[in-house]
# Entry
Amino acid sequence: MRPARIEPASSDASFRRYFRVFCANGTYIVMDAPPGKEDVRPFLHVTRLLEPLGVHVPRVHESDIERGLLLLEDLGSTQYLACLAAGGDAQRLYDDALRVLARIQARGAQAAGELAPYDSGLLRREMTLMPEWFLARHLSLEPTAGEGRMLERVFEFLIAEALSQPQVLVHRDYHARNLMVVAHRNPGVLDFQDAVRGPVGYDLASLLKDCYISWPRARVAGWVMGYRARLESEGGNAGADPRQFMRWFDLMGVQRHLKVLGIFARLWYRDGKIGYLSDLPLTLEYVRETCGGYPELAELAEFLERRIVPELPRANERAHRAAAGESGRQHVPGRDERGAGPAPGLDCGP
# Structure
């Protein structure tokens, strides 16, 4: 197999790089994961767990673990996000994604048993990214002692809620940028190497409270209840009643979005990727919306309205001015380089 040409395929929020290889018999993707910074073995392990469940993950044609190189099936270049932004059929696309997720959660108990647990330590480490990177670095905000204790109580509450849920195979980034529109067995699923055994509500919140695209609450609630019925019909644990399942979904969303606020800020201050700051307002809005429906989060809601909401636009503006100042000396990655926007002439039909 001799390549005719090689092109960059996509950017990534990690150190991984992807290249599309054009050959006489078709195209392939090369994953380049620099040893010492990335490890391809978790990707290979989770691939072997998901394939028997009927999930359309990239087939691994060749691997060189020591050099961090994988030759993969090419799932194309049409992300769910780009297709949805271009007016694609949201109902059909989400039906496909929810069908696959239900299969993973209902049939993947044995596979989940081979993964590390989404335990209290990991849940806590994720949420502490929010005060470290979002509050301190991005907003230049130092919580008072009372506010710090309040955040600690919120973290403990969310950890307890997460650990009380049925434990399933969790992708951890099951959203519109990691789902590809493909002609057969839609969707193609990417970026699953960090999978763990964890709460049933997590991936559902990742998908339906996506940090890159939002839907009206009524539509989301309909999808959640439809998913619960599907999960239950396939033998999965869907909770005692719809109210409990919605609580699982909502509270896992808060845990995830607190983490993501920290991650998006870190991607700029540590890694020079400013495009994710544009997604902070939507991510914060998800937290605000959920806090309004749960008395246990009333203190967090008050803190967000008083200290965070007024400051976020100013912090984003400061960051973009800093990026503009640097652009004359060095290239600063922008939003368009993350693959978040729709491509012209997009084909959204699987």
